[in-house]
C-alpha cells in the first residue's frame, strides 16, 4: 500500500502517545488522517496542528464508534488504513489481600468485563466496522483494499502480577489477528498487531518526574537498547505494516528484547 495524499487513514487514541506519533508519521507522508479520541480539547488542538481531522469517539460505545466512522468518511472518504491504539483497562490481581478487612478480595467480574470491553471487544468493534467499509473499495495492486493494525502488548505473552485482565485480553487481541485475516483475505484486507513493550508515553513520562530512580531501573531492565521505546519507533513499525502488502496475520513485538518478570 502506498502512503501518500490519496490514502485515507483513521488512528484511534490519536491524541497522545503511540497514536499521536502514528498520526504525525502518516501526515508527514501526506496521508489524510482522522483522529479518534475521547479527549475533545486535546484531540482538536492536535488535529489543527498537524492538519488532521478530529472526531470524538468513545471506543466503548457502538453508537459513538459508528458515528465517528461516518463523520470521518464524510470528510476524507473511506479509510484504507485503520491503526487502533485506544483502550480502556482496569488493573488488579485475581485475588489479593484486602487491607481494609484484613482478609482477601478478588478482581471483580465487573472490572474484568470493563477491560474486556475496552481492549478485546473494542478492537473487534473498530476493526470490523472499518473492514465493512473497506470491503466496498476498488482494489489496488494485488487486489488489496485495506490494512488494519491493532495494538496488543508484550504483556500478552508475559503478563505480570496485577495484569490478569490486561495480559489475557491483549492475548485475545493476538488471537483475533489470524482468524480475522483469514475472514478478510478474499476481500483483500490485511490484519496485523503490534506488541509494544515499555514506551515513553505521557503516563511513563509523568512517572519519570515522580520517581526518577525507579524510571532508571525500568530503562536498565531493557536488554538493548537500555531505554524505553520512543513513540516514533512504534509509528515506524505501523508505517511498515501499512506499506508492506506481504505482511499479513502477524503479531510483532517491539520491546528492546525485554521479557517481563512476574513483578
Description:
Keywords: Oxidoreductase. It comes from Sphingobium indicum BiD32. This is Short-chain dehydrogenase/reductase SDR. One of its GO terms (molecular function) is oxidoreductase activity. This protein is an alpha/beta fold. 46% of the residues lie in helices and 16% in strands. The protein has a single domain, classed as Rossmann fold. Helix 7 packs across helix 8.
Radius of gyration: 19 Å
Number of distinct helices:
9
What's the CATH topology label?
Rossmann fold
Strand content: 15-25%
Give the ordered list of helices and strands. Answer: EHEHEHEEEHEHHEHHHE
Characterize the biggest β-sheet: 7 strands, parallel
Structural class category: alpha/beta
Shape: globular
Total domains, how many? Answer: 1
> How are the strands of the biggest sheet laid out side by side?
3-2-1-4-7-8-9
Q: What is the CA–CA distance across the termini?
A: 40 Å
* Low confidence ranges: none
Multimeric state of these chains? single chain
Q: Determine the mean pLDDT.
A: 96
**CATH 4th-level superfamily:** NAD(P)-binding Rossmann-like Domain
The CATH architecture name reads: 3-Layer(aba) Sandwich
Helix content: 40-55%
Strand segment count: 9
Name the CATH class: Alpha Beta
Pfam families: adh_short_C2
Protein name: Short-chain dehydrogenase/reductase SDR
InterPro entries: NAD(P)-bd_dom_sf, SDR_fam
GO molecular function: oxidoreductase activity
